[in-house]
Amino acid sequence: MSDCVQNTTAFLSKWGIEAASIDMKSLLATFLSEMEKGLENESGSSLKMIPTYTEVVSGLAKGEPVIVLDAGGTNFRTCLVTFDEQGLAHIEDFRKVSMPGVKEEVTAQQFFSTFADEVERLIDKSDKIGFCFSYAAAITEDHDGIPLVFSKEIKAPEVIGKKVGASLLSELARRGYDVSKKKVAVLNDTVATLLAGQGAPSDTDYSGYIGFILGTGTNTAYVERNSNISKLGLFDGKSQIINIESGNFDFCPGRLDREYFDSTKHPEQYHLEKMISGAYLGPLSTLVIQKAIAEGVLSSTFAKRFAQLGTVNTTVMSNYLEMPFNSNYALVACCEGNEDDAIALWMIIDAVIARAAKLTAANLAATVIKSGAGTDPRKPVCINADGTTFYKTEYLKKYTEYYLHTYLQLEHKRYYRFVRIDDSPTIGAAIAGLSL
């Protein structure tokens, strides 16, 4: 082993960055314990385990149109969706506008007025509305959603605490429309992703369904028996989808992670998300690289070049693993003329991604185990995975599947299959709307 490889390996081990520093058995036990606590009382767990009152439907309404709204990030999308006899979704009359409150603060009336403006052209097409609302919201028994907080991009404080579906219908009624027969199902994007996986035509007999998103942020949803959701006190023999809010899982592997968490806006929140998602992998890698420079793992020449880059993002770090000899890439240029720098940097970034993959696998493995499904290899759990970080970050999906195979399939004898369904939030919202 060369000195470069040996020194880099020692550095990664010292700071708990390598995947081997994660004890999967202990981590799975902790994750499952947090899930149980969240089902008992969400204030006692870092996992909120939010009930959605949404069931996995046994059949899909064919030929019936449903209005679909998708509010996520900075865009608001509307369209009409119809499922054909083969269960394929047909998306029509699609339109996208900016979310209200992006450019300037808006009142509640202005907020819901923007939604109503977009719904008006579709209002006579269906009495059912599926609303994918990708912001933190409590879901009510009547399938409405109450926003709890908006991300910093959306400035609409008056909307917090107001029912999204009811407020939209109220605005439409104010404009003179008859909304007495209109029904709205509000759900978040992870729940919609699960439903899209469940509703997609397939030759596989799945035993369970999981919705998983790993993009800018991360979250997971699965199906739980109502009798296990003790905070609801429901013993009706039914099941419903649980929004885990898995990105908030409280876990800090080491001192460097603690230093990174402390540099973020909310140091005690969303620890898992800050170690695996697209918004954070780049900045976390930047901190690790800076620490490697300070400890002499990377050269002073590299340090000078790297300082000019500032914070690298997830795409930049992924590009280095993808094409480590492409001098057009900023990190490759930082290593020019020094093989040891090039090798050490590759090992560091690869370790950050490998560890993120192991943490991702722990999240998914715990979710599969908690669901009770996947015990028959002929009937795996369907994991509908969405998000550019998962698919486009070099090695992340590959390593995740390795750890899932090792710890979930070989050790726990649970079986799964990844699927990727385009337009999952739209399709899932349509399924939820049609199930009303």
Descriptive labels:
single chain, 436 residues, 42% helix, 6-stranded mixed sheet, 13 strands, ATPase_NBD, alpha/beta, 5-stranded mixed sheet
Strand order of the largest sheet: 1-11-10-9-12-13
Helix percent band: 40-55%
Radius of gyration: 23 Å
Task: Enumerate the spans where pLDDT stays under 50 for 5 or more consecutive residues.
Answer: none
Domain Hexokinase C-terminal: 210-433
Domain Hexokinase N-terminal: 23-197
Pfam families: Hexokinase_1 (PF00349), Hexokinase_2 (PF03727)
Catalytic activity: D-fructose + ATP = D-fructose 6-phosphate + ADP + H(+)
What's the short story on this structure?
By secondary structure, the chain is of the alpha/beta class.
Write the layout of secondary structure elements.
Elements: H1 3-14, H2 24-40, E1 50-51, E2 66-72, E3 75-83, E4 89-98, H3 108-119, E5 128-133, E6 137-139, E7 145-147, H4 164-174, E8 183-187, H5 189-199, E9 208-214, E10 218-225, E11 239-243, H6 255-262, H7 271-276, H8 278-294, H9 300-307, H10 314-322, H11 330-334, H12 339-371, E12 381-386, H13 388-392, H14 396-411, E13 416-419, H15 424-434
Parallel strand pairs: 2-5, 5-8, 9-12, 12-13
Antiparallel strand pairs: 1-11, 2-3, 3-4, 6-7, 9-10, 10-11
Helix pairs in contact: 1-12, 2-12, 3-4, 5-15, 8-10, 8-12, 12-14
